[in-house]
Design a protein that fits this description.
single chain; mainly beta; eleven-stranded mixed sheet; nickel cation binding; cytoplasm; UreD; chaperone
Amino acid sequence: MSPSTQLAAARPTSDRDGPPAGAREPAGHPAGVRATARIRAAHNGRVTTLPQLRSDGPFHLRRMRTDGNAATVGIIGAMSAPLGGDRLSLDITAEDRAELEITTAAATLALRGPTTEAATYDVRLTAGEHTRMRWLPQPLISAAGSNLRQTYTVELAATSRFVLREEQLLGRAGEEPGHLVSRILVHRAGRPLLDQRTAYGSPEPGWDGPAVLNRHRAVGQLLVVDPSLDIRRDAVLLGEGTKDGCAVLAPLANGPALLATAVAPTTSTLRELLDEAHARALAR
């Protein structure tokens, strides 16, 4: 994996996956990496600034050039990760009225490493009042033999606008995927908005069957939260009747939010479906 490869991992995502209540989180493999990178964006009255941009371990954070008042941070992988036993996290905060976009330089490649123990990657995203935050990483690739648990924990203010895109490729060309568990947990104004868990690869039962992925290998989600959204609509099915995957765009019950879930044979087709879902979500 080249130094420019991006990372993504997660901590245990449910009672089934993690330690019992009150137990200490597993320490991981002695050779595993422990790293927490931090980003804090603030608005100074004119533009969004980055008073904290702290790289750590495999995460190299770099401010990207942008037009306008927003800030964009690119995450560049400084080493191969996540590997089995790693404990990685990103802590990202956009304060009131800040505009922040986070992206990655390349796809993340989850590999087995020195142990079969799960690697974890915890992404914590906090958005203040009248904030715009966009989390738009490149895809995560679950390579054969890998074991990764990825968690997104999102806290949104009532007036914040938020976009999260998650794309996963299950296995490289000609190989089966590793074990990948992902959870998205979102609160808005202190109330639960979304709590969703997905799990793919052995030993998960039926993960590639007709009721789940139907043999597709690219899967993704797009969450759009915006107080101005028109959520008085039925679910929309995209790509129906083709062999190139499909997506469903549906409103969430507890807020001005729409969630798209898509499956496709390739990551390029998956991105097209999610882009179409995003355009539909923002259409008035």
